[in-house]
Design a protein that fits this description.
homodimer, 201 residues, mainly alpha, Arc Repressor Mutant, subunit A, Tetracycline Repressor, domain 2, 2 domains, 72% helix, DNA-binding, DNA-binding (chains A, B), TetR/AcrR family transcriptional regulator (chains A, B)
DNA sequence: CCAAGAAGTGAACCACTATTCATACCTTGA
DNA sequence: TCAAGGTATGAATAGTGGTTCACTTCTTGG
């Protein structure tokens, strides 16, 4: 054999792969999942349809990778928020605020990640997405329970419930454009945690 | 003209329509949305494919009608639970319990109604579904706030959040089969409402 | 019984897209 | 430069499943 894949070629291939993912993100953010057809992605990435399949075995894998990438980004942002100083309750509120603020800044993308109908393989990634958020919140709750600022509770359940609550409350604003009653989320969150500063009777 | 649609014919058509809806419910409950193809529905209903279109302008409309019917049933059950004696908090818990118990009894159906990917037109019905639940809960919360057993709050937001929380917590058990930590939902609900008997600090 | 007209049928049609693959074009090391 | 082998292409393919429509069957009132 004479041909060997050199770093130069590898770099070109990597950048093509990145271009495909970028185009897909862009399409997901502007037209939603429906606009993310393989042909459209390829066109926007400046490659041929077939080239997409040199990097991803199927469309589902492409979108799953997409989700993974976006989710990592979001989870990192939320984790940063979770590490700010303050009580466990305050930290969970910070997570919720960060989550909501970022979602409202990129509504179409957020809707796609949160709720838009997708094929089953991609749905699996969405579950990972939600679980990652849940885990970030659950970790804070566990801390709060340990240091006594939160009442004893099943941290994963409360955390899952808060994720669901936030997602549910956001879906209206995300699809309609208005901010709705998102501003009340912190109070709800504190109450749901059983935090002492939540104004409970 | 000689032909007129008589009550007898109308009755036959009505029962055919009902048969189609029944078959669709059955398929939705056993194979999920994916198993609900028009051909399969027609076959199970014992009619021709084309006959489906004599009753529904499109598959989306058929499924939307299906959703409407199922949602009405569920909302009625939940409303009954909401009218049992007790404090506002207890009533909301009764709603949540009823919702969860019924969902666990028909997991595939519940998953289809709650979370399974569907086309956009059907998604609209799902939103109606969730809003109906929200409204039932919000009404109890408003009562509780008025009679002082619950702290002042935006009832619709708390209600939406509780719906989202319940849905989120249920999705795991619904897809995996196990009951998970659903048993903790009442405590969470009471806490989220800010009810006095929730064991808050 | 019959003509008018409606209801019922289901195979064929069609739109939509993910996927393939024969072909053209590049890259490499000798 | 050249042969070997890889990479890129995009038109064609294929599977899916909703929808149609020419045709058959049934119903009605005279």
């Amino acid at each position: 054999m004479v041909y060997r894949r050199t770093p130069k070629v590898q770099a070109r291939m990597d950048s093509q792969r990145a271009a495909i993912l970028d185009a897909a993100v862009e399409l997901l953010a502007t037209r939603g999942y429906a606009g993310c057809s393989v042909v459209a992605v390829a066109q926007d990435a400046g490659v041929a349809t077939g080239s997409v399949y040199r990097h991803f075995p199927s469309k589902a894998e492409l979108v799953a990778e997409l989700f993974r990438q976006l989710v990592t980004r979001e989870v990192e942002a939320v984790e940063r928020a979770a590490q700010q100083p303050g009580s466990a309750g305050e930290r969970v509120v910070a997570v919720v605020d960060t989550f909501a603020a970022r979602a409202l800044k990129a509504p179409t993308l957020a809707y796609a990640l949160l709720a838009e109908p997708v094929d089953t393989p991609v749905e699996a990634e969405r579950i990972v997405f939600r679980r990652a958020f849940r885990d970030v919140i659950a970790a804070r709750i566990t801390e709060g329970v340990r240091d006594g600022t939160l009442p004893p509770q099943q941290a994963p359940l409360t955390a899952a419930a808060i994720v669901g609550a936030v997602a549910e409350v956001m879906i209206g604003p995300l699809t309609s454009g208005s901010e709705g009653a998102v501003g009340e989320l912190p109070t709800f969150t504190l109450r749901a945690l059983g935090a002492p500063d939540a104004g409970n009777p």
